[in-house]
């Protein structure tokens, strides 16, 4: 039995003290330097991803989001999910093909950065004491949201496709 989306979002809200939703581009460089859990949502309010940030050499949530912001996370976590969806969008691919045809190809990390900008997501986070606490909170949030089209690999295994619901 699945609970409806509104109830699921309320249940996730009750799991922790979450920051306000902010544009990814604006919030990522200012995220806290502590372990925690972050959520991504599309501008229509659909939560699409839940991720964990451990201690990460003292960089915490900011460090994890920075990996995405710099395009270095194209094969893991949210960065991979964002790039998968952008590459399934003909307009995104065509824009980049125009650059290639014009003799201006760019590195894969730029494609990954562009994918996140293309999706225009918002982010919020909850700070945790330790990486283990963050892992626990992430697991709880993913479990609550699993039936509601989030892009996490663990949740998408049961939905049958990379871009289901994207």
Characterise the protein shown here.
By secondary structure, the chain is α+β, with helices and mostly antiparallel strands. It has helices at 5-13, 24-27, 60-69, 77-87, 90-101, 108-119, 131-145, 153-156, and strands spanning 22-23, 36-41, 47-53, 122-127. Strands 1-4-2-3 form a 4-stranded antiparallel beta sheet. Strand 2 (36-41) and strand 3 form a beta hairpin. Helix 1 (5-13) runs antiparallel to helix 7 and helix 4 crosses helix 6.
User: What strand order characterises the main sheet?
Assistant: 1-4-2-3
Query: What portion of residues is helical?
Result: 40-55%
What structural class should be given to the helix and strand makeup?
alpha+beta
Give the biggest sheet: 4 strands, antiparallel
The best one-word shape is: globular
> How many strands in all?
4
N to C succession of SSEs: HEHEEHHHHEHH
Range of strand content: 5-15%
Q: What separation lies between the terminal Cα atoms?
A: 22 Å
- Cα radius of gyration in angstroms: 16 Å
Number of helices: 8
Please state the average pLDDT score: 89
The residue ranges in which pLDDT falls below 50 over 5 or more consecutive positions are 158-166
């Amino acid at each position: 039995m699945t609970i409806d989306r509104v109830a699921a979002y309320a249940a996730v809200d009750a799991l922790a003290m979450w920051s306000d939703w902010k544009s990814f581009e604006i919030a990522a460089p200012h995220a806290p330097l502590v372990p925690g859990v972050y959520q991504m949502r599309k501008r229509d309010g659909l939560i699409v991803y839940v991720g964990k940030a451990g201690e990460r050499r003292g960089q915490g949530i900011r460090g994890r989001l920075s990996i995405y912001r710099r395009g270095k996370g194209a094969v893991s976590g949210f960065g991979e999910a964002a790039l998968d969806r952008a590459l399934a969008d003909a307009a995104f691919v065509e824009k980049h093909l125009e650059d290639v045809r014009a003799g201006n190809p760019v590195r894969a990390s730029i494609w990954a950065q562009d994918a996140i900008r293309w999706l225009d997501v918002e982010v919020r986070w909850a700070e945790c004491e330790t990486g283990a606490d963050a892992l626990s909170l992430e697991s709880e949030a993913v479990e609550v949201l699993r039936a509601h089209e989030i892009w996490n690999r663990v949740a998408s295994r049961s939905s049958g496709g990379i871009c289901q619901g994207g």
